[in-house]
């Protein structure tokens, strides 16, 4: 990857603060004039301590948080889309086809079995049901989720199991951009190793990854570049 | 009869009814509201039919009145006598001689011809009433041709009974447009409505509606493709004249429960017997 | 994205003298999108629904709808004939109380079949076949096809209403508190069903509710209403996770987490 290749993610002058109206309108600035870019094949890891705004940045890129200022450009197909300004349905299209997200918490919809939870991103891309379920089986097997759990809703799973379902769902579609927010939290060493493998494979495919990892060993194995937000905010 | 106008109603009323009739003829099957008058018989006894007849009858008419096919039941006799007194027109029992036939619940077996008028007595004119109690809404449904619920009714019948169980007052579609109740004639008579050479007029006195089917208008009974409309059939023939084609009434003839099937149309039966002699 | 909007609402207002039902509401709705309209009682969300679905006449505003043949029509200026026909075929309204949206006096099968009979279906066997299909799709046991809706539970009545609405494959579905009055477990099942139907059939929907959990599950976008006005709008997860307007923050923080 040469430096002339356009970045997959290009964040410019991003400002994000939270105003809590119920608490007298106090404003908490979290990100100030942040600049960051991530190219295809990179795995950029944010290295700050908790509370610095790592999650905030990831969520802002995903369109889940609304920035006060700045641009968040992502490569969507053959164009750059500014997530900060995009219409909701554009953001949904970007999430569907381009940008995946693995968070620490699996939002569980009751009654939907793990297989369908994991298959959903493929179905959203138009993959046929049988095919999608086959691929979901493969990745769940790979992440060592016992087969007897596949037909059950993740409501009753342990934290580690839920997290692996989350990871499976995030990686299955092979999105060109992946945002990872503590994807290895609550995983044992063996499972962490599997996630590291998935990250490597994604990088091989040219995926641009941006994430936070609590465990030092994971960070060291996946990062191609480590960035701290305070550096990225230096104007 | 002194003190009464020809045919009992005053001329202005007749004019009003004739206007309603003209509208009804112009829009086959459409229920035209009219100012139903107080008549010397109560609601439910044919006041609508009587008002229509009174509006169209003229001195040269020959009137026949039947009730359930018979000329000699109480109602038929009363109405015929009423018109005889208030108009002085000739009356008859013979369908082929009549120019004007008022009927309750049957169409004569003898084929009708051009120039004849049949006046039907109608209790409830509105076919949609079974499911929609609001007049404002049913009027809208007719105007917008929203007749889905008529087939819902037939669907329910088939679901409950395996076939359409409605056997009289069977709803029809007139001229491909309005859905109409043909009055409580048996469904056996429905085919006679289709492209009849006669003018068919329908009067509902209590509900204050008049509707009409002009001569040679298409009248199709509602049905499903896989449950087509069928008419009644009897194993027996008429015990008096031997007819196998007419609508038969079942009559108990003695205290032991002996039964006889006879033509409901008394004139038709009598003529067949005359012909056989 | 050059796709045309299915519904374009501009300046929708309903006044009752000095009182405001809703004021200057505007949004676009695209094919396959679910829009949630949330707010508490008196927010104007139901007024907006009634104005759009034809039950109320708005004081001002325009509502353009993209018909199947590609032409655009202003719903509010359509003659009643056309509006009623649209309401029977291309649109559907799922009422909060299923009894309001069903014919309680006829069987489940007749309820589902009515809309297709209304547009000309004349083969009993086929109508019954379609009704059976739809009952399966909404998870009502096929044996119940000839039962009266009064014998169904609340949740099943609601699913029957949905089947009745969807049989003509409408492109736009209005839902008024679709899970209101149902037990929580029943709600979950119903929402699951609605989610799949919306996705499988590519429906667009406008879901009016006071329940934020329902919107998170069903809606792609949200309008937050208060006092007749839209105070915030945007992507559902963004509005719920990063509310900007004070009222939205209040709403979101008021939801009890069990």
Keywords:
heterotrimer, A: 235 residues, alpha/beta, 5-stranded parallel beta sheet, C: 258 residues, 6-stranded mixed beta sheet, 4-stranded antiparallel beta sheet
Describe this entry's structure for a reader.
- The complex is a heterotrimer of chains A (235), B (277) and C (258).
- Chain A contains 8 helices and 9 strands.
- In chain A, the strands form 2 sheets. Chain A has a 5-stranded parallel beta sheet, sandwiched between helices. A 4-stranded antiparallel beta sheet of chain A has the order 2-1-4-5.
- In chain A, a hairpin with a 5-residue loop joins strand 1 and strand 2.
- In chain A, helix 3 packs across helix 4 and helix 3 runs parallel beside helix 5.
- The two termini of chain A are 26 Å apart.
- The relative contact order of chain A is 0.19.
- Chain B has 277 residues and is an alpha/beta fold.
- Chain B has a 7-stranded mixed beta sheet. In chain B, strands 7-6-10 form a 3-stranded antiparallel beta sheet. In chain B, strands 11-12 form a two-stranded antiparallel sheet.
- In chain B, helix 1 crosses helix 2.
- Chain B is globular, with a radius of gyration of 19 Å.
- The mean pLDDT of chain B is 95.
- By secondary structure, chain C is α/β, with parallel strands linked by helices.
- Helix content of chain C is 39%, strand content 25%.
- Chain C contains 10 helices and 10 strands.
- In chain C, the strands form 2 sheets. A 6-stranded mixed beta sheet of chain C has the order 6-7-8-3-9-10, with helices on both faces.
- In chain C, a hairpin with a 2-residue loop joins strand 1 and strand 2.
- The radius of gyration of chain C is 18 Å and the shape is globular.
- Classes of the chains: A alpha/beta (235), B alpha/beta (277), C alpha/beta (258).
- Chains A and C meet through strand 1 and helix 2 of A and helix 7, helix 9 and helix 10 of C.
Overall shape of chain C: it is globular
Oligomer kind: heterotrimer
**Sheet with the most strands, sense and barrel status of chain A:** 5 strands, parallel
The number of distinct β-strands of chain A equals: 9
- Total of DSSP H or I helical runs spanning 4+ residues of chain A: 8
Distance between the termini of chain A: 26 Å
Summed up, what is this model?
Chain A is 36% helix and 25% strand. Chain A contains eight helices and nine strands.
Break the fold down into its secondary structure elements and pairings.
The complex is a heterotrimer of chains A (about 240), B (about 280) and C (about 260).
Chain A: E1 9-20, E2 26-38, E3 43-46, H1 54-62, E4 69-76, E5 79-82, H2 88-97, E6 99-102, H3 114-124, H4 129-142, H5 159-171, E7 177-181, H6 189-204, E8 208-212, H7 216-222, E9 225-227, H8 229-233
Parallel strand pairs in A: 3-8, 3-9, 6-7, 7-8
Antiparallel strand pairs in A: 1-2, 1-4, 4-5
Chain B: H1 11-26, E1 32-33, H2 47-56, E2 62-67, H3 74-87, E3 90-91, E4 100-104, E5 117-121, H4 135-143, H5 148-161, E6 172-174, E7 178-180, H6 190-193, E8 199-204, E9 209-213, E10 219-221, E11 248-252, E12 259-263, H7 266-276
Helix pairs in contact in B: 1-2
Chain C: E1 7-16, E2 19-29, E3 34-38, H1 45-53, E4 60-66, E5 72-74, H2 80-89, E6 91-94, H3 98-101, H4 108-118, H5 124-137, H6 154-166, E7 172-176, H7 184-201, E8 204-209, H8 212-218, E9 221-226, E10 229-235, H9 236-241, H10 246-254
Parallel strand pairs in C: 3-8, 3-9, 6-7, 7-8
Antiparallel strand pairs in C: 1-2, 1-4, 4-5, 9-10
């Amino acid at each position: 990857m040469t430096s002339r290749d356009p970045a997959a993610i290009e964040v410019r002058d991003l400002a994000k603060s939270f105003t809590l109206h119920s608490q007298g309108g106090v404003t908490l600035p979290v990100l100030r004039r942040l600049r960051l870019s991530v190219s295809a094949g990179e795995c950029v890891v944010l290295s700050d301590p908790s509370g610095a705004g790592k999650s905030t940045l990831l969520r802002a890129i995903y369109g889940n948080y609304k920035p006060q200022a700045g641009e968040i450009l992502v490569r969507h197909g053959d164009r750059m889309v500014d997530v900060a300004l995009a219409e909701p349905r554009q953001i949904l299209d970007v999430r569907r086809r381009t940008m995946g997200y693995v968070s620490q918490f699996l939002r569980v919809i009751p009654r939907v079995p793990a297989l369908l939870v994991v298959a959903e991103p493929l179905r959203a891309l138009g993959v046929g049901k049988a095919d999608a379920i086959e691929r979901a089986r493969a990745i769940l097997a790979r992440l060592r989720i016992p087969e007897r759990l596949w037909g059950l809703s993740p409501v009753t799973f342990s934290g580690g199991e839920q997290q692996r379902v989350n990871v499976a769902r995030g990686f299955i579609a092979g999105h060109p951009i992946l945002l990872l927010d503590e994807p290895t939290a609550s995983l044992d060493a063996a499972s962490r190793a599997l996630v590291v493998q998935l990250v490597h494979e994604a990088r091989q495919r040219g995926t641009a990854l941006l994430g936070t990892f609590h465990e030092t060993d994971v960070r060291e194995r996946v990062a191609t570049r480590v960035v701290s937000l305070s550096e990225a905010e230096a104007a | 009869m002194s003190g009464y106008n020809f045919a009992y109603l005053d001329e202005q009323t007749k004019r009003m009814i004739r206007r309603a009739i003209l509208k009804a003829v112009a829009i086959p099957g459409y229920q035209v509201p009219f100012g139903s008058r107080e008549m010397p018989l109560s609601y439910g006894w044919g006041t609508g039919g009587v008002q229509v007849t009174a509006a169209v009858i003229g001195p040269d008419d020959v009137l026949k009145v039947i009730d359930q096919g018979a000329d000699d039941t109480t109602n038929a006799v009363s109405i015929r006598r009423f018109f005889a007194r208030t108009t002085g027109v000739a009356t008859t029992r013979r369908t082929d001689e009549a120019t004007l036939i008022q009927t309750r619940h049957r169409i004569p077996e003898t084929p009708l011809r051009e120039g004849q008028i049949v006046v039907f007595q109608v209790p409830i004119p509105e076919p949609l009433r079974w499911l929609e109690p609001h007049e404002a809404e049913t009027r809208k449904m007719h105007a917008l041709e929203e007749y889905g619920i008529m087939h819902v009714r037939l669907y329910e019948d088939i679901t409950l009974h395996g076939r359409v169980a409605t056997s009289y007052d069977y709803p029809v579609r007139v001229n491909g447009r309005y859905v109409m109740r043909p009055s409580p004639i048996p469904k056996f008579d429905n085919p006679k409505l289709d492209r009849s050479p006669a003018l068919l007029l329908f009067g509902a006195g209590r509900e204050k509606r008049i509707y009409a089917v002009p001569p040679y208008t298409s009248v199709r009974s509602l049905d499903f493709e896989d449950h087509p409309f069928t008419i009644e059939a009897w194993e027996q023939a008429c015990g008096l004249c031997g007819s196998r084609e007419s609508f038969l009434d079942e009559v108990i003839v003695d205290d032991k429960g002996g039964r006889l099937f006879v033509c409901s149309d008394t004139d038709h039966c009598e003529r067949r017997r005359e012909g056989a002699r | 994205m050059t796709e045309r909007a299915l519904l374009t609402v501009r300046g929708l207002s309903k006044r009752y003298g000095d009182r405001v039902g809703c004021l200057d509401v505007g949004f676009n709705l695209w094919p396959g999108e679910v829009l949630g309209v949330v707010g508490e009682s008196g927010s104007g969300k139901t007024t907006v629904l009634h104005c759009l679905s034809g039950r109320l006449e708005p004081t001002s505003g325009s509502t353009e709808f993209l018909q199947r043949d590609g032409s655009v029509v202003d719903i509010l200026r359509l003659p009643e004939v056309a509006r009623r026909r649209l309401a029977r075929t291309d649109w559907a309204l799922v009422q909060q109380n299923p009894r309001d949206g069903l014919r309680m006096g006829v069987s489940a099968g007749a309820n589902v079949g009515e809309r297709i009979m209304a547009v000309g279906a004349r083969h009993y066997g086929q109508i019954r076949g379609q009704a059976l299909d739809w009952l399966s799709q909404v998870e009502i046991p096929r044996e119940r096809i000839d039962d009266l809706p009064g014998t169904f539970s609340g949740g099943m009545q609601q699913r029957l209403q949905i089947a009745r609405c969807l049989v003509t494959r409408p492109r736009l579905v209005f839902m008024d508190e679709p899970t209101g009055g149902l037990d929580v477990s029943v709600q979950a099942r119903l929402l699951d069903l609605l989610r799949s139907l919306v996705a499988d059939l590519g429906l667009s929907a406008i879901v009016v509710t006071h329940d934020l959990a329902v919107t998170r599950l069903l809606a792609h976008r949200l309008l937050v209403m208060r006092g007749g006005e839209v105070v915030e709008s945007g992507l559902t997860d963004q509005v719920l996770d990063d509310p900007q307007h004070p009222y939205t923050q209040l709403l979101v923080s008021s939801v009890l987490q069990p």
